[in-house]
User: Fold non-specific protein-tyrosine kinase from Amnibacterium kyonggiense.
Amino acid sequence: MEFSDYIRVLRRSWVLLLVAALVGTGAAGLYAFRQTPLYTSDTTVVLTLNASGSINDALTGQSYIQSVVTTYADVADQPLVLTPVRKTLGLTDTMTNDQLAKEMTITASNTSQLIGISVEDPSPKRAARIADTVAAQLAKSVDDISPAKKGAAPVKLSVSSPAEVAKTPSTPNIPLMLAIGFVGGLALALIITILRNVLDTRIRRPEDAHAVTDRPVLGGIARSSAVRKNPLVVRSDPNGRLAEEFRTLRTNLQFLDVDRSTRTMVISSSTEGEGKTTTAVNLALAMADAGSDVLIIDADLRRPRLADVLRIDGGVGLTDVLIDRVRLDDALQSWGDGHVTVLPAGAIPPNPSELLQSEAMEQLLERLQGRFSTIVLDAPPLLPVSDAAILSHRASGTIMVCAAKHTTKGQLADAVDKVQRVGGRVLGVVLTKLPVTGADASSYVKYEYTPRKPVGRKGAKKSSSLKAREV
Assistant:
């Protein structure tokens, strides 16, 4: 994935990222709200020599202090110190030595003369009192356990900085927890988004189709709810976006295969529901508008839809001609202004593949190629059945219709391979149902240039308009 792909993924999933970040922040806030606030008070005890002497004695005493400072620190959370502290503060009935020790953090280093005592308690005042009392009791306990020299302990402990009552709780750190929740939720959503994009093999853009096949993307058709109501957009809205997209497809096909005077094109797709019939009909209408004599054949003998889309009688058609039930001219139906001729599917046969593969079908196509400049065959999907592959072998080429966010790369690759294995030619890919807006909006459907409606001048007189026409 390139950097632009990551940006597109983020744009596509911005709602998920935002919701995840807000949920993470809310969960962290709820967790922080349910925590009991704790206040921290700190005090420091300094170890000094109890008597003065020569410089050598001072240096020896300094080394002695550094050697015992960690030992004295270990005494601070022992019953020797904690039991008297509990009695002094009246905590004998409410707190055990272990519970009191858990509230304390003792720090010391054998390179210094300081012992740090930190107490964390729900009550700020009690935290300060415990810290000061522990410091005082530690000094007293050290005097009791230190080896005396001439009646005095060699080391003296004194409080260098008494504990202060905390004004704000040390935990929970609400701003920090909210930040962690926000970043955590965002990171989790980002990982899910990237993984989902990596595992999603659906074709969304022309670049995805190019990664599957070397055949060109002939055009793109935008997603529109109006197509369901009236698929004939080239006729119903000739100046609209969709009509222009089909005309662009027509132009690309003309330049793709300029050496062939007769074109027999199979319109198929990988699976159903990708818009192949709509594409076939509107492409045929666009070619007819350019002056071509177009024949469109409903070669989907399993689920024919062409007659319903064009609103014609589909009772007699291709199957009847192939079995010599009716004459070809009796089955052909002129549609519109006369440049479009339709051959419906007719009755649904029990053996569609055999009929399409028959010699009668081959002879029929040869006859029709002599009468029409362009033949468009609306064929079944390639992957479920072999009908379209059979037709592709006898046609000038096959156009693969691929619905964005519907067809997977594997399905498109298998469909293209199925055509090529029978000796067919894939002209290219047409992407349908492309999003017009959003991160996946394609350049094929991103822009629109429709004619402006004529607007008369306000206050213009009818007589002046008549005079202008007369001139």
